[in-house]
Amino acid sequence: MSFFKKLREKMAQQTNEVADKFKHGLEKTRTSFSGKINELVARYRKIDEDFFEDLEEILIGADVGVSTVMELVDELKEEVRLRNLKDTEEIQPVISEKLASLLEKDDKDTTLQLQEGLSVILVVGVNGVGKTTSIGKLAHYLKGQGKSVVLAAGDTFRAGAIDQLDVWGERVGVPVIKQQEGSDPAAVMYDAIAWARSRKADVLICDTAGRLQNKVNLMNELAKVKRVIEREVPGAPHEVLLVVDATTGQNALSQAKAFAASTDVSGLVLTKLDGTAKGGIVIAIRQELDLPVKFIGLGEQKDDLQPFDAEQFVYGLFQDAIDAEKE
Ligand SMILES: Nc1nc2c(ncn2[C@@H]2O[C@H](COP(=O)(O)OP(=O)(O)OP(=O)(O)O)[C@@H](O)[C@H]2O)c(=O)[nH]1
């Protein structure tokens, strides 16, 4: 079965709602990235060195990242040689298959690692990336999976952060445990864990103050928050999710690199993919950090956070070509 056919069959099993989210959320990237690849395929017709050079340029322009592009193009060349491909049209399924395999090194790792009893998810990232919004959406998603969720308002630093989380708690119908602005976030976590335990909640999602990875005090504070969580709940935090903003492109990548070097990050939430034409950043992050993207933000509504799925993502990018393939 061709890779495109496999994707078509997989997508046929999706609900229309999820398919639409990916379709609309990836529109900008699709129009620019795949539009350019389609043009390239039509312009060259025959695969040659110039074709690969132009392809490299398109991939780099979509923020895939130079080293990843080089690796990808080398692999494509090898594949073209092995399969003895001549026409550019034949290469499109190969490109998408390669992208999917780069993104899905191990399909288990994109799912949240929750345990029986209380699981704790710590959410970190710099200001303004969409952290609070993503926590609200994640709570909504987990609720939809039948979990009882509690939020801990651990960003006691930024004015308005507690209220903002409260608004999300109300919007998605989950309790928010909080103290006053300026209070010790570790104490908030302590309270929230006790509360979640007493209510036999399944998941506690902890907000933290936005911080730059080079601010030593704030990083120490984060370490303290983590210690409290570790001490109170064996095996916790079960996930440390780093939120990065896709529209900041290569900046998101360097932020993630720096964070991952100082904190044990277990996965990423990549927000605002709907707002960028450079969705290739997902591939750069996966490849250069070796960290899974676990969720992607495809809009501002509560159900606009979707679990990341490599094949779904690739389908979202090449939808037109995939649907147009003749069987
Ligand atoms: N289009 C789009 N907008 C998003 C997405 N995620 C978040 N946003 C918007 O990004 C803005 C910032 O989000 P916040 O959640 O306030 O950011 P934050 O990281 O919590 O900010 P701090 O609390 O300062 O750390 C808001 O206007 C959100 O609606 C997304 O996936 N798509």
From TrEMBL:
Part of the signal recognition particle protein translocation system, which is composed of SRP and FtsY. It comes from Shouchella clausii. GO terms for cellular component: cytoplasm; plasma membrane. Belongs to the GTP-binding SRP family. FtsY subfamily. It is an enzyme of class 3 (hydrolase). It comes from the Bacteria. This is Signal recognition particle receptor FtsY. Involved in targeting and insertion of nascent membrane proteins into the cytoplasmic membrane. Acts as a receptor for the complex formed by the signal recognition particle (SRP) and the ribosome-nascent chain (RNC). GO terms for molecular function: GTP binding; GTPase activity; signal recognition particle binding.
